[in-house]
Amino acid sequence: MKKSLYKYLTLSLIIVSVASCEDILNLEPAQSLSNETALDNDEGVKQALIGAYDNMSQTSLLGGELMRNAELYGADNEILWVGTYTAPREIFNRDILNTNGDVLDLWTDAYEVINSCNNVINALDVVVAADQNRVRGEALALRAWAHFELTRMFGQQYEAGIDNTQLAVPLILIPTLAFGDNVDVTRNTVEECYNQVITDLTEAESLLPESNDVFINKYTAAALLARVYLQKADYAAARDAANRVIASGDYELNNTYAECFAQDDPTDEDIFSAENSELDNSNVMVTYFAINDFGGRADIEIEESHLALYDDLDARKAMFFVDGDATFTSKFNNEFGNLSIIRLAEMYLIRAECNSRLGTAIGAEPVDDFNMVHTRAGLPAEGAVALDDILLERRLELALEGFKVHDIKRLKGTISVMNYNDPKMIYPIPVSEIEINPLLEQNPGY
Amino acid sequence: MRKYLLLIMISFVSMQLFGQGRTITGKITDADNGEYMPGVTILQEGTQNGTISDFDGKYTINVPESGATLVFSFVGYETQKITLGEKNVVYVSLKMSQEILEEVVVVGYGTEVKTKVTGSISEIKADEIALTPVSTVEQTLQGRAAGLFIESNNGKVGGDVKIRIRGSSSINASNQPLIIVDGIPINTVAINDYFNVYLNPLNDIDFNDIASVEVLKDASASAIYGSRAANGVLIITTKRGKEGKAKITLDYQQGFSEPTRLREFLNAEEYIDYFTQAAINAGEYDFANGLSGYATVEEAVEDYIGDVEKKFDRLAGHTDWRGDYANTDWQSLAFQKAISSMLDLSISGGTEKMQYFTSVGYSYQDGIMIGNHGDRFNILNNIDAQLTEKLKMSLNLNLSRSINNDIPDDNSFSTPLQMVAQSPITPPKDTTGEYYNTPTTLYYNPLIEQDNVFFESTTFRTLSNIAAEYQLIPSLAIRGEFGGDITNHYQERFYGSKSEVGLSVGGYATNYNATVQYLNTKLLLIYDKQIEKHSIGATGGMEYNKYDDNYNYVEGQGFPNDKLQTLASAAEIVAGTSVDSYYRFLSYFARATYDYDTRYLLNITVRADGSSRFGEENRYGVFPSASVGWVMSNEAFLKGSEKVSLLKLRASYGLTGNAGIGNFDYKGLYGIGSYAGTSSLFPSSIANPALTWEKTAQLDIGFDFGFYNDRISGELDYYIKNTTDLLLDVPVPATTGYAVQTQNVGSLENKGYEIVINTQNFIGDFSWSTSFNFSVNKNKILELADGQELIDLGGSDFMNVIMVGQPLGVFYGAEYAGVDPDNGDGLFYVNETEGSDETTTDFNLANYVVIGDPNPDFISGITNNFAYKNISLDVTLQSVYGNDVNLQGDYWMSSNASQYDNQTIDQLDAWQNPGDETDIPENRLLFANGTESRSSRYLSDASYLRVKTVTLSFSFPKRLTEKMNMSSLRLYTSAYNLFTFTNYTGWDPEVSTDSFTDNVYYGIDFYSAPQPKTVVFGVSIAL
User: Fold this and answer.
1) In this predicted structure, what is the pLDDT of residue B14?
2) Chain A residues closer than 8 Å to B480 by CB
3) Domain that holds residue B429
4) What CATH number corresponds to the domain at position B652?
5) Above 70 in pLDDT, residue A294?
6) Which of B586, B680, B792 sits opposite A51 (nearest CB)?
7) Closest Cα partner for B427 from B584, B314, B265, B588?
8) What mean pLDDT is reported for chain A?
9) A66, A118, B196, B364: least surrounded by Cβ within 10 Å?
10) How confident is the model at residue A354, as a pLDDT?
11) pLDDT for residue A10 is more than 80
12) Residue B164 pLDDT more than 60?
């Protein structure tokens, strides 16, 4: 009896002495690193760069919503949204509320990418000298990519030949190190945004190596530049950038069209693909485009007006299948597969279009580039092509891959009866963002 | 219980005996039943000379030769004074006191005589809640105590529950009260997995083992718990043994449940007509507005009709919707016949030195939703031992095993109630007997889950505490306690090859394991001294709380056969992780109480808490409180009054804290992820080294009364709770790369009053007593971050916001203006300027205004007990008044055919012809037309009055039970949620979907299971 008392008192004393030691209240998390130490070493900065890719591959960005929404926004009766989520439905109806969740996610997540990149650029000093160019190049390219996607969703289409003073998004070029950084910012113009994107990508292209595993390399940067220049109708620069990619010889078209999609690994044709696996998956193109059997929700049906665009012999038409009474695409039938983001075919089509517009034949004649893509789809080679043929080829080749609304805009088209530059054809600035930063001006009509 | 507590108290008192004089002996009996009473204090008046009666009620005391008076006292009994005459043998029989106010109540780290309590404490006794036909303790408390608001998320078995004491005091930090079971704080964070299924942490406690529940409401009562007491404290005390022969009780009940309310949906014929008409309307609307460029209206209508008929063809499966169509009532398929049963066996008793209470309990409960079941097995062992004259020990050991076959959260196509979205023209099964799935069904068919999915959660929980107390000197004791709440929880889930999740991957399984260890060590010094009329008490101590949890899971896919469900059979392991989290609290506390003649009461407490959740500079918080009381009825001018038995005024003021936030919110962190098989780091939070406690200052003024020998008694309380330095996740511009930063900004207020009235309307053969409580709490956000008036993270769907000047979580959205009688357009008020009644069809032009409030204006409960001889009837009514619920699911099911989802019957009232006065806009197939979800159209008043419990019981007369060798035998029937009176348009008004519920997002109904209505029959036997 007494013994247990003493035992207890001893125990109590131990507790008291342990307790008086302040250390028990000093804990470090098990699943995170404190920011004081995370980026003070070479390895940490490189992991933070991977973090920028991780951010960029989120569902709202290259996980697929970026592309899905570009297709829904420009659906033009070619595809039909039948899903239950309200945010895509609003985009599909071109009747977007300024509280739209997808719009907010794009805004938030793109700036996460940008902040990650800026932190990496800021901490470059601790990276071993041999890798500094590569790391900086990748960070610049990702930052430019995020700014570009924001610019074309929140700002009106770039109009060639005029000063594009219409507002796009704030350009964020410094890291947020403490509360207060990057808080009171205003929207830059479309012109300023394009200039910064091009500056970043141009520098990235010059810094990056020719090959870089599954990450961004010199030609990824060039391919992005081609996209950016095409969107602003700078055809010569777009053509040249596309030409640099094609001329590198590092990529070749896959033998069949079907091989380009739903793959586990990048294909020969992929200049960039978003990496997914069973362990780390953010592929939501599957979620929306695929039917239940492939892990999707069957939210997007393909309409007859789109199917009618294809020749019956076109291998690309064979990508569609009927389930129940509706038609779906099989491009996204690999639940944990990669998402092809930039394919060589796009570069051929950019070069063809620009050469055709400019009457040049840099790299190849437009018809030859056209036929590269056209014959791969199992169709006979054409002897001559006009600009419209190239544009239609682009529409078929890149169908449902996130080009639709952007192409309509740069070609100054309409969606149903809505003009490409209708106020409703760009996203509202998320209202919650304006509430905390009143310096941000809302887009007209929202 | 009372005897036990007294034993503690008397063990503090010196028991020196005087050697001179004569010896008095005798026996003490209970006047009610003639049983001998152990533990009665016998004191020679005006001296310290005293003793207590032994196991057989015998006592012996030495007194001076003459002139002595003996005082016989026992808690809960009337004190008797006997002036000694000649006799040396004095038999005494003590009468039970009518004076319930002499009760002892449990307070923080101790007990206190109720009269001397200066704080605001509600107490719920075992007999009020025993045998309620529910599975968890908090469900029994609804309507029982003023200021205590309890709301189940939904009617699923084991689902999480919201408990609020005097409102919500925080925006982002936890609002659940601190819960103490037998001295140890328990983990109240719902265990969940990434499937969003939250399991109620009180699920594992068998409430039939509970002796009392104390609700500590004001700062005086709760401040001794310091940094975690801002939301009040619930103290649960389990039953303990009493000295005496073994008492065996057996309770058994068996019952049935069904939903409290159902909704009405279109049948097949109505569905076909309604959607066909919607297609015609849509075609006409499209043409009239030139939307798709149709050449003629006929062409437009034909096109839309074509669409709808194509859809009908698909939905009808093998049936012909034009002829012999199916007419499926999907709602009825979502429910099951639910049975429940409960068995409890307890044995208690003890000797003078050792008392025990041990019980075993088993309960089984079906949920009312298909596939939902739960069962629980409990063992409780409580032992108290007086080891030596000065040393005593106690042990509590509560073990449980709960199994829950849970069902998916409300926001899943696979949750049963989402079946109501399916079209009534769709048959559940095809001609081969297989369940239909998409594309025949509109959405995934949850019936497939019934035989192709297996979910089971198993929780092992140990709540245990050992305590030792040593009497250092007569008035000072030292007490040490060590205990913990240890949970082992694992979930097995198997999704077969036909299920939504398993379909594309050939079957899918997960195994999730969580271990939570919440350990508690305390050391206390307890001082108690009575000097004439001054009584002084002091308690001081320290406490250390250590929380660690770990979870891990493994996922695999590709199963050869749906019968092989463990991960051993998975072709591929596709995911796995393990995560540790932890925090520590180190605390010092003290309480001093003083009273003079039980007339003037003073109570002061202070606690200093250190927490690992804050940075070094702000780690410690100090939480003081002070309270005073004046027992007027003990003053000379009222003492002994026939009419007034109690009048007490009390007032308290103090500070409590809240640290219910993330473990490392003060730090700037990089999170860990991966991309392309390479690990990654990304900025996940901005540092805030200044982060510190959220503080709640509370003023409480209370008045306790009892008249006519407590035939009428009650309590009135008024309080103001002001919370400052709110731990707020302040939205920061996304351009920073972050979404929020946790800051100490802003303040909010809760104020309100509580009324409790207990009356004994009749006493005697027919007795009737009533207990009534009523509480009002007004919550108001006073201030947010600098310049911030509104936090609205709701997007297009969620209406709850945080707005200065408004209660937390008010509904903020467009104000629905009904239907334009000319054309059937749904309208919203523009609300550009106040008072303007301008309307618009363009939702973007409708300014958001406050359109509702999920917080009730008042809650109340009333319990009536009627008894006539051996028959008793207890009826408890509970009501919640003035709160709104956002019917978020109605965006789909009550949307004038803007979706193909089956519609509620009220949608038939849609506008048809110019001049129609209705609130339902014209049904235009797939056009939004007034269905934007963030509007007052989807709010409903969720006030309700419920007959919460009705229990009718019959006790067999003593002469019969004695023949059967029983001390009592009771048969009863009890009903829970028997009637619900409400104008709520959804299923059940007590709802907050398990998919989106937190401090701000609540009062949302999204295909949430209604509450069950349960009737049980039971028997209670005591030997």
Assistant:
1) 35
2) 8-9, 11-12
3) 335-385+397-809+853-894+932-1014
4) 2.40.170.20
5) yes
6) B680
7) B314
8) 93
9) B196
10) 98
11) no
12) yes
d(C-alpha A137, C-alpha A218), whole Å: 8
Which token pair is A387?
Answer: 């600009």
pLDDT above 50 (res B198):
yes
Quote the tokens at residue B998: 């937190």
Tell me the pLDDT band of B233, cut-offs 50, 70 and 90: very high
Above pLDDT 90, what percent of chain B? 68
Given a cut of 60, whether residue B6 has pLDDT beyond it is: no
Any chain A CB within 8 A of the CB of B790? yes
Contacts of A14 (CB under 8 A, 6+ apart): none
Kindly state the helix (H) or strand (E) to which residue A46 belongs, with its residue range. Answer: helix A42-56
Residue B843 lies in a domain: no
CATH number of A38-333+344-436, picked from 3.30.360.10, 3.40.50.10330, 3.30.230.10, 1.25.40.390: 1.25.40.390
- Taking CA atoms, B346 is separated from A441, B203, B305, B1022, in Å, by 70, 20, 69, 9
Assess if residue B490 is contained within a domain.
Answer: yes
Distance CA A164, CA A86 (A): 33
Distance CA A22, CA B612 (A): 10
For residue A286, give both structure tokens.
């599957």
Among residues B97, B113, B136, the one where a domain terminates is B97
Residue B146 lies in a domain: no
Q: Give the number of domains in chain B.
A: 2
- Nearest in space to A111 (alpha carbons), one of A204, A187, A224: A187
Using the Cβ of B440 and the Cβ atoms of chain A, whether some distance falls under 8 Å is answered with yes
Record: contact B523-A39, CB cut-off 8 A: no
Which residue in chain B has the smallest CA separation from A299?
B443
Domain boundaries, chain A: 38-333+344-436
pTM for this model (two decimals): 0.84
Whole-number Å distance between alpha carbons of B225 and B768: 38
Give CA–CA dist B522/A63, Å, rounded.
51
**Is the confidence metric ipTM above 0.85 for this complex?**
yes
Asked if residue A9 has pLDDT above 80, the reply is: no
CA distance B502 to B956: 57
Please tell me the distance from the alpha carbon of residue B847 to that of residue A98, in angstroms, as a whole number.
Answer: 12
**Exposure letters B826-857 (e unless 16+ CB within 10 A, then b):** bbbbbbeeeeeeebbbebbebebebbbbbbbe
Last residue of a domain, one of B97, B123, B151: B97
CB atoms within 10 A of CB B533: 11
User: Tens of pLDDT along B966-995?
Assistant: 889 999 999 999 999 999 999 999 998 888
Percent of chain B with pLDDT over 70: 96
Token code pair at residue B615: 């940075």
The overall longest dimension of chain A from CA atoms, in Å, is 106
Residues in chain B closer than 8 A to A274 (CB atoms)? none
Give the one of A25, A50, A77 whose C-beta lies nearest to B612's C-beta.
A25
Query: Taking a contact as any Cβ pair under 8 Å apart, which residues of chain B between 276 and 315 contact chain A?
Result: 290-293, 310, 313-314
- B84: pLDDT strictly greater than 50: yes
Helices of type H across B843-975: 890-893, 958-963
Is the pLDDT at B15 greater than 50? The verdict is: no
**Which residue from A32, A97, A214 is facing B672, i.e. has the nearest CB?**
A32
Range from A332-346, A402-416, B98-112 carrying the lowest mean pLDDT: B98-112
- Is residue B444 less than 8 Å (CB to CB) from chain A? yes
Length of chain A: 446
pLDDT digits (tens, 9 = 90+) for B403-444: 999 898 899 999 999 999 999 999 999 999 999 998 899 999
The pLDDT value recorded for residue B190 is: 66
- pLDDT of B80: 84
Token duo for residue B154? 């939904």
Q: How many angstroms separate the CA of residue A336 from the nearest CA in chain B? A: 10
The pLDDT assigned to B324 comes to 86
